[in-house]
TrEMBL record, chain A:
GO molecular function: ATP binding; enzyme regulator activity
The protein's name: P-II family nitrogen regulator
Sequence similarity: Belongs to the P(II) protein family.
Keyword Phosphoprotein attributed: yes
GO biological process, one term: regulation of nitrogen utilization
Residues recorded as bearing O-UMP-tyrosine in the entry: 51
Gene Ontology CC, one term: cytosol
Keywords from the named record: Nucleotide-binding, Phosphoprotein
Organism annotation: Marinobacter vinifirmus
Classification of source organism: Bacteria, Pseudomonadati, Pseudomonadota, Gammaproteobacteria, Pseudomonadales
Length: 112, 422
């Protein structure tokens, strides 16, 4: 099983979610985060004093899937979240050791 | 038949006072929302507590002794509910100008209208000392400010008494219609004294002269607060006409409402344009301070200017408040909400503009009055803050300031998350 973590631009969330549904992904977890990569922040002004905002709002999407869906998920997210401009985000893939469905106690591939 | 009309005049002028008093009370909500919008989330509960508590303290202390000091009434308002109807009717009948003479109204309504002004003066202080003052030190100061300091300068102005028996401001041609100086500049003077002894928030000013932004947590609340203040101000200035029940007075009331509104509008526009020119962007917080500055400026003389004049004066206030905020920061005087600029600097401007449209008032009278008010309030406040600082300390510790005064002073977060019961 794999845990796919994608950091995307917030307004791309709906597109990514739809794309994942289309390939059969049943569940996602979404968190509001802030961060930066090569996309620089910007300066703001408050009552005459300048300050720098480095951290930009992003959305983190986490999906637990079976190995068989990995390539499709990566392709779906990449296409849906892409705008071609700096700051589109990244996808990280980590090995998922165990997964348990709390309600039924199912484990492994049946739980994702 | 005549006495029936006297009854009605008494009733309408009393009603007018209590309604205007209620509008001014509503300004407390305005201050609370404005201030809580301009501080950080971790300091929100504390500033709300300060605002509500100071209002309660002001009402109580003014009842205990403040009103008596200011107007020669009795302590604890004893006798204020008494009314001798026949005596009152006799007063009406004996008035020089008949129906158009001075208003006669319930003593209780007079207290109610006056007490909310005291609370307004005190609440100006709470914004300037926000995010780093000990709550109870502030409340202790409020007891003295509302019980003694404000009533003293109020007695020399609206109370008509001699200043320590030396001179009389009314005789010198001083006039402050609804309190640009008596309420607003006075509050700012107390705030300035406090801020000088308190020091700036940690991290506000850098070692090489940098001024760091500490953005407020909730712009909707700040904007809401400003609009609430704007509306409440109609009572503040409107009620200060002191009479509604004849044609001339009613017309004066209408002009006061009109001009108060016009000045706020002018202030908002003036501040917005200057902020755009100076900073390249439209700063909402400057716009809000601008509206308030306009309101403060017109408060000294809202009835005699024309609508256009009132708007221009408001705009002058709006421009001045932006310049003052930036200047105070350069002087490293940290005022998180711009209270000293909006109420102090613009309060002074309001006083000095009165002779322009009111020929019975002199510039020298206004200057002497302004100095009297400022020196008395500033020095008295400095002494009280100084005593509090020596006895109990007025500033929270560095760690408490870092964690947020909501935790150290109130033990209560404004926006709690992940709360669990034991």
């Amino acid at each position: 099983m794999k845990l796919v973590t994608a950091i995307i631009k917030p307004f791309k969330l709906d597109d990514v979610r739809e794309a994942l549904s289309e390939i059969g992904v049943q569940g996602v977890t979404v968190t509001e985060v802030k961060g930066f990569g090569r996309q620089k922040g910007h300066t703001e002004l408050y009552r005459g004093a300048e300050y720098v905002v480095d951290f930009l709002p992003k959305v983190k999407v986490e999906i637990a899937i079976g190995d068989n869906l990995l390539d499709q998920v990566i392709e779906a997210i990449t296409k849906a979240a892409n705008t071609g401009k700096i700051g589109d985000g990244k996808i990280f893939v980590t090995e998922l050791e165990q997964a348990i469905r709390i309600r039924t106690g199912e484990t492994g591939e049946e739980a994702v | 038949m005549e006495s029936n009309i006297f009854h009605l005049q008494y009733a309408i002028d009393t009603f007018y006072f209590v309604i205007c008093g209620a509008l001014v009370m509503w300004m407390a909500a305005g201050f609370a929302m404005l201030e809580s919008g301009l501080v950080r989330a971790k300091n929100t509960t504390e500033i709300l507590t300060k605002n509500v508590a100071l209002f309660a303290i002001a009402c109580t202390m003014y009842m205990v002794c403040g009103y008596a000091i200011m107007y020669d009434g009795s302590l604890f308002l004893s006798g204020i509910a008494d009314v001798d109807v026949d005596g009152v009717l006799g007063e009406f009948a004996g008035r020089e100008d008949g129906f158009e003479g001075g208003s006669i109204y319930s003593g209780a309504s007079d207290f109610f209208f006056q007490v909310v002004f005291v609370a307004t003066a005190m609440s100006i202080v709470s914004g300037a000392v926000a995010e780093r003052m000990k709550l109870w030190a502030f409340l202790a100061f409020a007891v003295v400010m509302t019980g003694v300091i404000y009533p003293m300068e109020g007695s020399w102005t609206w109370g008509g008494k001699d200043v320590f028996g030396l001179y009389n401001l009314g005789d010198l041609g001083f006039s402050d219609f609804a309190g640009s100086g008596i309420v607003h500049m006075a509050g700012a003077a107390a705030a300035l004294a406090g801020v000088l002894l308190l020091g700036a928030r940690k991290g506000k000013y850098g070692p090489n002269g940098e001024i760091r932004a500490i953005p407020g947590a909730n712009m909707p609340l700040a904007a809401l607060g400003t609009l609430i203040l704007w509306m409440g101000w109609f009572g503040f200035n409107g009620g200060s006409v002191l009479k509604l029940g004849d044609i001339a007075s009613a017309n004066s009331v209408a002009m006061v409402f009109l001009n108060t509104n016009a000045a706020a509008a002018g202030g908002a526009i003036g501040a917005l344009i200057l902020a755009r020119l100076m900073f390249g962007k439209a700063d909402l917080t400057m716009l809000l301070n601008g509206a308030i500055a306009g309101l403060v400026v017109i408060t000294a003389e809202p009835s005699t200017p024309s609508a256009l004049t009132a708007t221009i004066w408001g705009a002058l206030g709006g421009i001045l408040v932006v310049l003052s905020i930036v200047t105070l920061d350069k002087l490293r005087i940290d005022d998180p909400v711009g209270a000293i600029s909006a109420h102090g600097v613009c309060g002074l401007l309001g006083l000095l503009l009165v002779p322009v449209t009111n020929s019975e008032v002199t510039f020298s009278g206004q200057l002497i009055g302004a100095l009297t008010i400022f020196v008395w309030v500033f020095v008295a406040s400095l002494i009280v803050w100084g005593i509090l600082k020596a006895v109990m300390g007025i500033r929270v510790s560095e760690e408490e300031e870092y964690e947020g005064v909501d935790l150290s002073e109130c033990g209560l977060e404004a926006y709690p998350e992940f709360v669990s019961t034991k």
